[in-house]
Amino acid sequence: MINEILAFNEKFVQNKQYESYVTDRYPDKRVAILTCMDTRLVELLPKAMNLRNGDAKIIKNAGAILTQPFGSAMRSILMAIYEMDVQEIFVIGHHGCGMTNVDPDSLVQKFLQNGISEEVLMTLENSGIRMSRFLKGFESAEEGVMHSVDMIRKHPLVPTGIPVHGFVMDPTTGRLELIHEGYNDKDSRKLSSVNYKSIPFD
């Protein structure tokens, strides 16, 4: 794959194909999107939302789900707000997500089958990394989206004036279903009751 990619990249640069993508680091539409890393959404999601290069900050992970309030995805959202002038947050999950009903025990077995020792897993568990929590999915795309929406909305470092919206996308047609519109949330926000001191950074 490396040789194939580098050969294409050389021609891409030589032919100045990059010129139509030139922009700066500030999102023109002042939005940040937390979405899933699913391959079906790579080109579909921006096209279905009429987004061009430079329009939005797009943050991806498995399932568009925030597993902890002080992890890397949440840090990216905070950076987008405070350093990139983002004014709205979109959380976009999708139907048929691989994180739906994921089985942590099954994943642990795959770790073992691929050479990860039980000693390593026990060390992690003894250090406070609970595989059942770390690898947990969700029962529906809607549940996963609302989990992330709530964590962002209740985060102590997110300004109350930032609306957080939730959507679920059809990964075939690109159709968006709005499941939470965040424009009226700013008056009803409450600090989360999460004990942040007990949560490790990722």
Automatic annotation (TrEMBL):
Its cofactor is Zn(2+). It is an enzyme of class 4 (lyase). Its EC number is 4.2.1.1. The keyword Electron transport does not apply. Coiled coil: none annotated. It catalyses: hydrogencarbonate + H(+) = CO2 + H2O. Gene3D superfamilies: Carbonic anhydrase. It holds the Pfam family Pro_CA. Keywords: Metal-binding, Zinc. It comes from the Bacteria. InterPro entries: Carbonic_anhydrase, Carbonic_anhydrase_sf. PANTHER family: CARBON DISULFIDE HYDROLASE (PTHR43175:SF3), CARBONIC ANHYDRASE (PTHR43175). Belongs to the beta-class carbonic anhydrase family. This is carbonic anhydrase.
